[in-house]
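Sanity check

After download, print the first record. It should look like this:
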Amino acid sequence: MEISEDIVIVGAGIAGLATALALKRVGLRALVLEKSPELRSTGAAIGLLSNGCIALHHLGVAHKLISIYPPTLTVSVTNVANGATQETSYTGVQLIQGKRNEIRLVPRKDLMEALVEELPSETIRFSSKLISIQTHITHEGLSIATLQLDDGTIIKAKVLIGCDGLHSVVAKWLGLKAPVHSGRAAVRGLTVFPQGHGFKQESQQFIKPGLRGAFVPLTDTDLYWYLIYHSSSTGEEFGGDPKLLVREVTENLAKDFPLTYLKVVRHADLASVTWAPLMFRQPWVLIRGHLSEGNVTVAGDAMHPMQPDLGQGGSSALEDAVILGRHIGNSFLQNDGRIMPAEVTGAIEGYVMERRWRVIGLITASYLAAWAQQAKTGWLMKLIRDIIYYKLLHSFVFGSTYFDCGELPRVPTKLD
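Expected structure tokens:
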């Protein structure tokens, strides 16, 4: 079977769904290819800083989440070795037009469902695994990407956007080097206390050399928790068993953490517990690499996987979606509602120019935040972590993530 589409998005994760929605807002239909048989909404929570919430506002779905999940403005950091605790702020020193930076923890499932609800039911084609890409120029001078799926389907697209994550087929086709292992891994999960957890709305972090754990309230009953630790493991020893993961955290890795933290982990909703190596793409790969080729580009983790220490994985993907939608939407509207390949190529190049240095900065800042917070032993590293980072730089670093990705172009109505 062979079909033709104007725009094809590979991957129905946060980046892919948000990009499809951004394009819908400017009057464009996109087909989203998802290799799984259903929406992959499993997992714990996504940290959304103000830049992510602003992007959701431009996409028209922020109201579905912000009214439910309150912001977390402060973080309490406890040194497990000596019990010393210090508080710092997420709000940062950077204020724009009187607005403060903040972070909200939102269940991944809720975020994805909020995006999917705004899309036509036929937007996502499930069980559609991309296995190869070819591009060619037609006799009319049109640039076409020919996609082959594992079921034999051929799709010809005027625009191809790879939102297919860490192991992106589209990024590989563009020649981007694969993400590298940071030397750390993370266990994450959600815990629900039906009668209420009783914690105030702040992040409670616990640190020791090579380990950092935390829990953060999502609502009065729900908590998100994680443990990040140095590891080069592939995770095979856990076999995806959430019970083994919880036991590893509570009886081995974090066994000397405060009882409050251990209680939260022990009561985890096992369906939400995951383990993952922390991967990132080095900044110099994005400086030198091809982030687009003609009418093909990437967004989200396919472009810029980063460590989670600034909570920018989800937020930056939402930024990508709005900015890409803005550039393609402007081209579409300026050409009387038509996809003109030459103009779309210029629009994609404009998107890449706007995103390249922004995401390079986020990757670098996330790496430095990880290095400072998860320091190993030694008086110098303790000085850097406890004095220089948490007391002087933490709020500034988080504050610097504040960013408004800009509004989507307005689609003229019949009244106009």
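If your output differs, re-run the checksum step. Summary of this record's structure: The mean pLDDT is 88.
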